[in-house]
């Protein structure tokens, strides 16, 4: 469990560093990007290994029928990630689409995974994403972006999200985590 906690803390700290300590981050200059990238890569490894090897009690028993809700939230999260890159209509309506994607993904996974390790991983990332939105809004205000929206861009984003979700589902199943009950 220590690796998992360390991974979540490193991930959160690396992302929040710029917001909490802007002067220190500015002093690092462009070299700071490399340092942050290395810390983030290490945090992902720690979270993956920590979650795979974590033991602990079940905190709640999930209703298997919630798997459809989890899959819906995960697909929505993948769509938000794709939309944030492509600049679709939802990025004009929903501030912070990437952080909202993390929150949707985390909530979906908390619904179906009742272990202590899941609470640490998904709950920790939910707290990080929520705190990030609060800090960004406090420092920068709510974002307001206006992009040219085309039906073709919307279709491409939707298809990309479905294909990415399929790839993620395949990896999930390959690792031994079911996505259907």
What does this structure look like?
The protein is an all-alpha fold and 181 residues long. It folds into 2 domains: 1-55, no CATH class; 57-181, no CATH class. It has helices at 2-20, 22-28, 31-53, 67-86, 89-93, 97-112, 116-140, 151-174. 24% of the residues are buried. The mean pLDDT is 91.
* CA-based shape: globular
Question: N- to C-terminal separation?
Answer: 27 Å
Low-confidence stretches: none
Tally of discrete structural domains: 2
Structural class: mainly alpha
Q: How many distinct helices?
A: 8
Gyration radius, in Å = 18 Å
Briefly say what this structure is:
This protein is mostly helical and 181 residues long. It has helices at residues 2-20, 22-28, 31-53, 67-86, 89-93, 97-112, 116-140, 151-174.
Features:
2 domains; globular; 8 helices
What is the fold's blueprint, element by element?
Elements: H1 2-20, H2 22-28, H3 31-53, H4 67-86, H5 89-93, H6 97-112, H7 116-140, H8 151-174
Helix pairs in contact: 1-2, 1-3, 1-7, 4-6, 4-8, 6-7
